[in-house]
């Protein structure tokens, strides 16, 4: 109804949600095409096997350009364009197997991104460029058996050794750890335990004293989640000596926003699955979807998904604008991941007994989504960050 | 950064409105609540300041703005501390008058829209009836043709501004046999014979706003009182409801932010067991939860308004934003009252008032349940 404004075309020039241009939507359809063709049809089989053809999938994904949106062409990238990277994240989340999405996502947003952000030009050429191509796989190792969300509690140690360093300690829950060609590892570089005494290192697969093994997980079963043991393993410093804590905090914002983006998209896919089932399934002579209680529960879920999306896009806009988005990212991360899990639980409920059977994909959404409120900083940690940001 | 709905110019308007609200409205909130009404000069004053009808074009006295401007007005008037004031203003500018601009003749715009924008005429909107609220199709007020125009008979209830309005935009049934195609809208002067305010309703919250029950007993209106097209009233009022829901939830969420801010301040000052209650981890997480959900609701409102301005008619999104915002606002108000403890239950802090005021958003303009019906239709589970 609005009357003509001084700048009548202003709204027409604003991209969707203030983020997505026509080019982004073209990229979306390319990535969607790849995901629906090369990944999704295999999801069921890969899940059963608890594995996927890692090298093949990474190289294919690299060829399509899934890993390069954040980087300049020098490294084989197509960016830097964080919005494009967000589009890729959203589409990968639709691949049907949380573990494959996690493997591709962890590679895209963690280890290699650290190399780009904090590495030297030479390190970028050595590790980032092949990571963008998908020929080398990178991982990030922060969590330890005794230190998860509490990054300052890290016990792993690195000591100078000639021109380099030797790293010792144990890391756990490391996505892509057992399949990685290089791992970015946080370790202590000063004797006193504080935020300031942590540094980042790169350890390459096959290095003497480095051993990785796979751990069994309730969800994300296609993902190679690992425990990594370092015993005097040769390591190369990445970024600033004793600046590791700050580096980790810097990248956390991106790690968490992509988790929120993926969770919103996954929740929508799970809801679609639930609605499809409820339309087909008949009880008491009519489709389950036609019972008013279920209609309203679907309406609530769809509503909460859109609300989480609005919040997530708000946080993303702030990041893209280069502003401090710590508070907003923390909000989006917990709201979206908790919602993804809640939607999965409702979706399982509407499936009834079939929801409890391994032959239906909804159980996978239920198991896979449960890690959202834990990984990348738990919901409780997010609320600590938000509460503190208000001076509490 | 600003949401893309807004420009720095919107923020200038925000500053001006906030200043006005804080200096001229907020100091009277308590008194107006007690009296059960705020004075008519508020309409005139806001008209003079150009705050009524920011979205209408200059030829009618408006500011030629967009949804961003309307939301700024809705959000800032909500900060008066008295929900009824913001609601009455929203009825004036965003509910009873947009249909005049959208569907009215030039003559109707001159006679009703322009003086409403100036704050000289007070407008009300007559949809609900004793037996028809969210179920608009159940409306029983009739309009029938007479030699000189139309005669209207019926009752309307829960009519904001209805006690003192100069005119009412009425939803009537003009052809019972035509079903949804049998509704027509009218602009009815309240001083016409047969138009009676049968009572002023007493209510739980929004007490500074007058709410009327109206009786129309053979009210004769001229032919040019018909607004829009005869028989198109249902679709026209459905369009009106979209703006009503969007502005309603925008104001409601802003009102909850204000209470959130007050509660945050209180939690830092109030000590228990030797430390500020805000420093207890449980309360810190309550604030984190509230802020997160409020921010989601606010961004949802902005995204929806943006989608509308970009050319969509986002009925599903509007319904969702209202449903989500209303539920969040109610949760936040209740949690804030809890954090305030005894002081929240005492009237002097204004927290209990906000708590009571906020309850309406989940009923007015279409209940939560109606929103879910609308949303589920769009999901194809119908």
Short recap of the structure:
The complex is a heterodimer of chains A (392) and B (382). Chain A is 50% helix and 15% strand.
Q: Describe it for me?
A:
The complex is a heterodimer of chains A (392) and B (382). Chain A is an alpha+beta fold and 392 residues long. Chain A folds into 3 domains: 125 residues, Butyryl-Coa Dehydrogenase, subunit A, domain 1 (Orthogonal Bundle), CATH 1.10.540; 103 residues, Beta Barrel (Butyryl-CoA Dehydrogenase, subunit A, domain 2), CATH 2.40.110.10; 144 residues, Butyryl-CoA Dehydrogenase, subunit A, domain 3 (Up-down Bundle), CATH 1.20.140.10. In chain A, 50% of the residues lie in helices and 15% in strands. Chain A contains 13 helices and 9 strands. In chain A, helix 9 runs antiparallel to helix 10. The longest helix of chain A has 37 residues. Chain B is α+β, with helices and mostly antiparallel strands and 382 residues long. Chain B has 3 domains: 114 residues, Orthogonal Bundle (Butyryl-Coa Dehydrogenase, subunit A, domain 1), CATH 1.10.540.10; 108 residues, Butyryl-CoA Dehydrogenase, subunit A, domain 2 (Beta Barrel); 144 residues, Up-down Bundle (Butyryl-CoA Dehydrogenase, subunit A, domain 3), CATH 1.20.140.10. Chain B is 50% helix and 15% strand. Chain B is built from 13 helices and 10 strands. In chain B, the strands form 3 sheets. A 4-stranded mixed β-sheet of chain B has the order 1-4-5-8. In chain B, helix 4 packs across helix 8, helix 8 packs antiparallel against helix 9 and helix 10 packs antiparallel against helix 12. The longest helix of chain B has 37 residues. Chain B is globular. The mean pLDDT of chain B is 96. The chains are: A alpha+beta (392), B alpha+beta (382). The interface between A and B is large, with 54 and 58 residues.
């Amino acid at each position: 109804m609005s009357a003509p404004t001084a700048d009548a075309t202003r709204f027409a020039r604003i991209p969707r949600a203030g983020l997505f241009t026509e080019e982004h939507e073209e990229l979306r359809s390319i990535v969607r095409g790849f995901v629906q063709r090369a990944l999704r049809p295999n999801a069921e089989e890969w899940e059963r096997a608890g594995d996927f053809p890692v090298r093949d999938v990474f190289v294919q994904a690299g060829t399509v350009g899934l890993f390069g949106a954040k980087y300049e062409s020098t490294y084989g990238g197509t960016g830097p364009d964080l919005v494009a990277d967000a589009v890729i994240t959203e589409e990968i989340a639709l691949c049907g197997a949380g573990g494959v999405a996690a493997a591709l996502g962890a590679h895209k947003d963690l280890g290699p991104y650290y190399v780009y952000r904090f590495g030297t030009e030479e390190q970028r050429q050595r590790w980032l460029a092949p990571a963008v191509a998908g020929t080398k796989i990178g991982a990030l190792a922060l969590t330890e058996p005794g230190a998860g969300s509490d990054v300052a509690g890290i016990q792993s140690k690195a000591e100078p050794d000639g021109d380099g360093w030797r790293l010792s300690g144990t890391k756990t829950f490391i996505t892509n750890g057992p399949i990685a060609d290089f791992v970015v590892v946080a370790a202590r570089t000063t004797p006193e335990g504080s935020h300031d005494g942590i540094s980042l290192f790169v350890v390459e697969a096959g290095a003497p004293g480095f051993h990785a093994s796979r751990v069994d997980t309730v969800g994300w079963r296609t993902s190679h989640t690992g425990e990594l043991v370092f015993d005097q393993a040769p390591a190369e410093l990445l970024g600033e000596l004793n600046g590791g804590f700050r580096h980790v905090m810097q990248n956390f914002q991106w790690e968490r926003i992509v988790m929120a983006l993926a969770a919103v998209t996954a929740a929508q896919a799970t809801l679609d699955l639930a609605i499809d089932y409820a339309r087909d399934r008949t009880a008491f002579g009519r489709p389950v979807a036609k019972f008013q209680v279920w209609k309203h529960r679907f309406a609530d879920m769809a509503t909460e998904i859109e609300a989480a999306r609005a919040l997530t896009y708000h946080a993303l806009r702030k990041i893209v604008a280069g502003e401090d988005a710590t508070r907003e990212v923390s909000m989006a991360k917990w709201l979206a991941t908790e919602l993804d899990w809640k939607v999965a639980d409702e979706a399982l409920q509407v499936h009834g007994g079939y929801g409890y059977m391994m032959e239906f994909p909804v159980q996978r959404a239920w198991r896979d989504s449960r890690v959202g409120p834990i990984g990348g900083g738990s919901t409780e940690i997010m609320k600590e960050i938000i509460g503190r940001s208000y001076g509490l | 950064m600003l949401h893309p709905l807004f420009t720095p110019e919107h923020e200038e308007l925000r500053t001006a409105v906030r200043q006005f609200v804080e200096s001229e409205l907020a100091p009277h909130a308590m008194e107006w609540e007690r009296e059960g009404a705020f004075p008519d000069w508020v309409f005139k004053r806001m008209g003079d300041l150009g705050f009524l009808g920011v979205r209408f074009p200059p030829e009618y006295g408006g500011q030629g703005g967009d949804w961003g401007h309307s939301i700024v007005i809705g959000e800032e008037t909500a900060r008066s501390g008295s929900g009824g004031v913001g609601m009455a203003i929203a009825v004036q500018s965003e509910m009873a008058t947009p249909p005049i601009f959208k569907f009215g003749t030039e003559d109707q715009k001159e006679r009703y829209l322009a003086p409403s924008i100036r704050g000289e005429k007070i407008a009300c909107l007559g949809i609900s009836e004793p037996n028809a609220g969210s179920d608009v199709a159940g409306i029983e007020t009739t309009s029938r043709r007479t030699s000189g125009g139309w005669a209207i008979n019926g009752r309307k209830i829960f009519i904001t501004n209805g006690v003192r309005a100069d005119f009412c935009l009425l939803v009537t049934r003009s052809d019972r046999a035509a079903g949804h195609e049998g509704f027509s809208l009218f602009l009815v002067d309240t001083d016409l014979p047969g138009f009676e305010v049968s009572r002023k309703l007493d209510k739980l919250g929004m007490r500074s706003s007058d709410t009327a029950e109206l009786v129309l007993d053979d009210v004769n209106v001229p032919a040019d009182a018909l607004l829009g097209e005869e028989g198109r009233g249902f679709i026209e009022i459905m369009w009106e409801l979209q703006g009503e829901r969007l502005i309603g939830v925008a104001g409601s969420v802003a009102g909850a932010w204000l209470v959130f801010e007050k509660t945050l301040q209180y939690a830092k000052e109030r000590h228990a067991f030797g430390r500020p209650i805000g420093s207890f981890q449980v309360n810190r997480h309550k604030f984190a939860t509230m802020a997160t959900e409020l921010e989601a609701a606010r961004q949802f409102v902005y995204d929806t308004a943006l989608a509308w301005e970009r050319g969509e008619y986002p009925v599903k999104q509007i319904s969702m934003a209202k449903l989500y915002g209303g539920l969040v606002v109610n949760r936040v108000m209740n949690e804030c009252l809890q954090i305030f403890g005894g002081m929240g239950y005492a009237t002097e802090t204004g927290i209990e008032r906000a708590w009571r005021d906020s309850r309406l958003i989940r009923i007015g303009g279409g209940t939560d349940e109606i929103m879910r019906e609308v949303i589920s239709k769009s999901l194809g589970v119908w």
